[in-house]
Design goal:
The chain is of the alpha+beta class. 35% of the residues lie in helices and 37% in strands. It is built from 2 helices and 6 strands; from the N terminus they run βαββββαβ. A 6-stranded antiparallel β-sheet has the order 2-3-4-5-1-6, with helices on one face. It starts with a strand and ends with a strand.
Length: 99
């Protein structure tokens, strides 16, 4: 198994952050059939071969993904696509970048 961990700093308010993360989750559900659910300020998600969570913090979001055996060889490509997607969605007004 491979793990992906990233933290993205931003300057958005709590509701705007949650709305943008919800947009990302809806797109992932539509494109990759990822199931997700909110538990407080934590977004839990799962699909065949991958599972993880995204935590909303004060001025940051933190992502942890566990990739199964089949997706592990694609870790680099998956990680790059996630970085680009999060940066595009979160940077809107004044994102600061991945930490």
């Amino acid at each position: 198994m491979s793990n992906i961990h990233m933290k993205y700093k931003h300057a958005l308010g709590p509701q705007e952050t949650r709305d943008r993360v919800e947009e990302i989750a809806k797109e992932l559900k539509r494109e990759y059939k990822i199931d997700y659910a909110w538990k407080g300020d934590r977004l839990l998600f799962r699909r065949s071969g991958a599972a993880g969570n995204l935590d909303l913090g004060d001025g940051f979001i933190e992502l942890d993904i566990n990739l199964g055996l089949v997706l592990s060889p694609l870790k680099g490509k998956i990680e790059q696509a996630i970085k680009q997607n999060i940066a595009a969605k979160m940077s809107g007004k004044s994102g600061e970048g991945l930490a």
